[in-house]
Amino acid sequence: MSVVSTGVRLTAALLLFALTAHAEPTVQQLIDADHWIRARAALETRLKVAPNDPVATRQMAQVLHAFNDLPGAQAQAERAVKLAPNDPEAHFTLAEVAGDQAQHANPLKQLGLAKKFRKEAEQAIALDPKHVEARLDLISFHYQAPGIAGGDKKKAAALAAEIERIAPEQAWRAKATIAGQLKDSTALAASYKEGVAKQPNDYRARTSYANWLAAPWRSPAEAETHARAAVALDPERCAAYTILVVVQAREKKWDQVDATIAEAAAKVPDDLSPVYQAGRVALTDANDPVRAEGYFRRYLSKPSEGGTSTQAAARWRLGLALEKQGRKEEAIKEIQLASELDPKFEPAKKDLKRIKG
């Protein structure tokens, strides 16, 4: 083989490596990192070309669920199960949608939805015996559901033991789930600390512990350390920036708040959660309604990312900021708009009645 041909092959290999290194993330990677707007756009394109793609259908159900479109998510999840009845993720997605529906349904429908959740989550485990997420959801179910729906705390303990056996590095999550259900703050803190100790390079472990520590009566300084570690692990995810902003805003370090918001906006432009939380803290903790107004108006300048505070919630809080400034008519207009955007949003209903009354 000639030197020239070897050089050409090496160059081609290096080019391929460079292209791969800078390739667009997959839809699943976008979903895992909470980039729901980008995932939705990619899936809409995919489903136009391949409407019966079972993976894309299931992923679209996850996306619609993140945007709180429960009827749409249910339809897509049901279809995903029909297209791929042996896909554990399709059954798990349907379980999560049913579980969310159960929490918001009237008592007559709750029982049926709870049973559907359990059936689909258990089917996900039957198809994938190492399915951790389904077990975690079932642990919560067994603590929350009445016996008539199949709730059983002993089964929750057994599921936690299974996670310890099949994925010991994830055991802290099972412990945290149980501690949360029991409202055992000591056990909850210990589980989060264990998560960071066992998985120091896991973004979720870092942000879970940071979020716990961020409360003013715990350790905001330590929370900031873990949040910054999470940013270093993945600067293109938003949760860690949001925690930093909350800690900084509570201390009224507004220059730092704005710097963190700018850093987040550069890396995660679709998610303005840090802006919303800056406004919330400015309004409720710092009693600075003028500053809060500015943050809420910025948050409302773009559509909300999936899984984040809704436009209705932001309109409601903007209305409260305006009310604190004595701008009653403007406040009523914003809170009225919040109610129109989400007729089931009770805080807006209550405050609209109070201000008008």
Radius of gyration: 23 Å
Helix content: over 70%
Oligomerization category of the chains in this entry: single chain
Order of helix and strand elements from N to C terminus = HHHHHHHHHHHHHHHHHHHH
Q: Termini, distance in Å?
A: 88 Å
Description:
The protein is mainly alpha-helical. Helix content is 76%, strand content 0%. The chain contains 20 helices and no strands. The protein has helices at 3-21, 27-32, 36-49, 54-66, 70-83, 88-104, 107-127, 132-144, 153-166, 171-182, 185-198, 203-213, 220-233, 239-250, 254-267, 273-284, 289-299, 311-324, 328-341, 346-356. Helix 4 (54-66) packs parallel to helix 6. The N and C termini lie far apart (88 Å). The model is unreliable at 1-21 (pLDDT under 50).
Produce a short descriptive summary:
This protein is mostly helical and 357 residues long. The chain has 20 helices and no strands. 43% of the residues are buried.
Name some characteristics of this structure.
disordered N terminus, mainly alpha, 20 helices, 357 residues, 0% strand
Blueprint (SSEs and pairs):
Layout: H1 3-21, H2 27-32, H3 36-49, H4 54-66, H5 70-83, H6 88-104, H7 107-127, H8 132-144, H9 153-166, H10 171-182, H11 185-198, H12 203-213, H13 220-233, H14 239-250, H15 254-267, H16 273-284, H17 289-299, H18 311-324, H19 328-341, H20 346-356
Helix pairs in contact: 3-4, 4-5, 4-6, 5-6, 6-7, 6-8, 7-8, 8-9, 8-10, 9-10, 10-11, 11-12, 12-13, 13-14, 14-15, 14-16, 16-17, 16-18, 17-18, 18-19, 19-20
